[in-house]
Design brief:
homodimer; alpha+beta; BirA Bifunctional Protein, domain 2; Rossmann fold; eight-stranded mixed beta sheet; 16 helices; 16 strands
Chain lengths: ~425, ~425
Amino acid sequence: MKGNNTKPPSGTRDFLPQDVKSRDRVFSTIKEVFENYGFLPMDTPSFERIETLNEKYGEDGDKLMFKILRRGEQALSGETDLALRYDLTIPFVRFVAEYQDKLPKIFRRYQIGPVWRADRPGKARFREFYQCDIDVVDSASPLADAEVILALTEALSRLNLKEFTVQLNSRKVLGGLLEIYDVPTALRKGVLVTIDKLDKIGVKGVKNELLERSVPEKIVEQIVKGIESPVSDIIKRVEKSETGRIGLSEMWNVLNLVDPLLKIGKIEFSPFLVRGLDYYTGPIFEIFVPGAQSAVAGGGRYDNLIGSFTGKQIPACGGSLGVERILALLSNGEPPTISTQVFVTVWDKSFEGDALEIASELRSKDISTEVYVGGSKKLSNQLRLASERSALYCIIYGPDEKGKKEVGIKNLATSEQTRLPKDQLLSTLLGLLGK
Amino acid sequence: MKGNNTKPPSGTRDFLPQDVKSRDRVFSTIKEVFENYGFLPMDTPSFERIETLNEKYGEDGDKLMFKILRRGEQALSGETDLALRYDLTIPFVRFVAEYQDKLPKIFRRYQIGPVWRADRPGKARFREFYQCDIDVVDSASPLADAEVILALTEALSRLNLKEFTVQLNSRKVLGGLLEIYDVPTALRKGVLVTIDKLDKIGVKGVKNELLERSVPEKIVEQIVKGIESPVSDIIKRVEKSETGRIGLSEMWNVLNLVDPLLKIGKIEFSPFLVRGLDYYTGPIFEIFVPGAQSAVAGGGRYDNLIGSFTGKQIPACGGSLGVERILALLSNGEPPTISTQVFVTVWDKSFEGDALEIASELRSKDISTEVYVGGSKKLSNQLRLASERSALYCIIYGPDEKGKKEVGIKNLATSEQTRLPKDQLLSTLLGLLGK
């Protein structure tokens, strides 16, 4: 089996110890902020029944799902019955439908976990990636939207990404615009899909794709003109539509709540912001930080989605942080240090038990300790390995030390070596390590 | 879409907030112990190329894998190219092969994550479940096996599962036994698969299954007699085989290192312990605790596995804790408390911004704070929700308080309500919460 491909599958990654530490540090900061905002953790399985996920994400979603073959004899049929979750929102909505009676009222949840999309792999774009989601269920108030945006921006601030811009819109503003531009109803979904690509393909790209979608040239000209006009002009146009006015009002409500609380970052109305997914109904937002081409966070209100599972309309809104993009931005920072504090050398085979016993005593007080398990008897080899580990202290315990009921400690930074009574080892190390 | 099935897929679970908290508490205890033992975190994707996993787990493994359909146009072929990981060992071995030059020497890793097996669901047996693995690479020393067992038992102890029994064997002891019982080489793998089921199907079940496998009756009688004999008799028999003697010696080496360090728990030789997976070569173990029918942990030495990927023989050993079984045992304990500390009521729409501002101040000092986002203006309704949340304090801030630059605090346990200058709110709450 020599010559196997040992790389991770296309679009996925392995994580070396340093990578896991960096990621965990980001997760724990985010978790801390979410809990400060009263969000509670919950979790769902990695896969769902296909019918739970199908037709929830729009044009692309269904194509990009990882589908799982039936098991046992049914595998032969080539049929699939499960799919890896594509986001954390749809599984959460199923969860809310299932546990309605067990959940706290006006439930605030958070969830941190991987999702899977068979997208074309790219820079900081992976097929397995982490989302950190928060949602508020059963609140139609703009306060809920504001709390979601504030929690996400606070998390970014604590991660030292303070110069964020929140771009805010409402799906109803977009609805009003399409109405005013006279876009035929049948084309509206497609037009939004295209406008959503604005930051990727630019104004020209949008123009061409709209024409390809058979949107009448006059309308395309108007949309392009709109995209390039000052926001104040757009507001005047949107106000001419009833839907547009509702959209503007809910957008201003959220903006006026969030704006006074932002310190370095800012929030602004962005009338052509779409958010890809189909299920949004009200205010939507994306958060950008300097240095990242695409949004590091986004979300919005989805007042009809829970109803599609339960038959009972329950308003909800939420948002999501993209950890990979954040990690890519933080990667210049100081990596977290990882090191064993104490390294116990092993004199020879007859001292293995003694080495374990010394380690056991130190570990009982949470001193992280490694016993040498390699094949070399030479002390110099063992000390070299300890140095490579960035261990702080080495323990030396051989026949001479044992006879005198002593133990040797070597400080690996200074190379200073001392001996002390064995029964003082633990207290001495606790002192040296400031524990 | 009303009437959708909202349950999680068969064999999987959803986690309510309390469940996630319990699980996280177990994870963080385990992580702490593993780091005390000098193990470093690493991670791999949830799925692997099918050829990485195939033929590594023995008879059952290949059947129980969740396989993923190819994407795009290739989906039509019904072919699969990826599979969800079945354990954390094989992906780790691929990882070691790939990053040999980047990893610390004598690498100690830990990994905590879900694995997937399409097993028949049962009590505390799921199709998606968590494993907590540790492994030591590039050490042939029994010290490495001992460190693995000690770290796992220490984790169990810290989780208050102190009365564990480690059952220890060596694959070479089993090899010696099969030699002595004269089991034909072609039948040996199958015989081990059957003996592995001893704790599930009992001695009679083993006997019948061996006969079904066409093992000669005389041999079956000997195996059954062996299972029922005292360990001292088995040792005498095993010693007659060269392989058996090597196995006994490596088993004793590990047992004699671990035994003196166990306090309440114990370790014992268990000559018919098999461990299901194909890849073990030396010492193997399983850990049992009272109240659980099957093992809560297990592992062993797999000296040939890394070589099968790299062509270069690298000895290794490891072990795994099963979180689900541990959680089932702990479920009688006190559930962790989760509550928002402070609940900010909202007087009316014009006070929404003030409520957010108060919350923002408290959150900046890590006081977990929720702002009321529900639809009721009635203070009594808002206070009731705060009580349901087990919040400790409620903040009341209306026109009267605002006029006097004051703020109201209600202690929800005592119903005591006081007013204080608004600029003393943060320091007062920090004091009350002992922060």
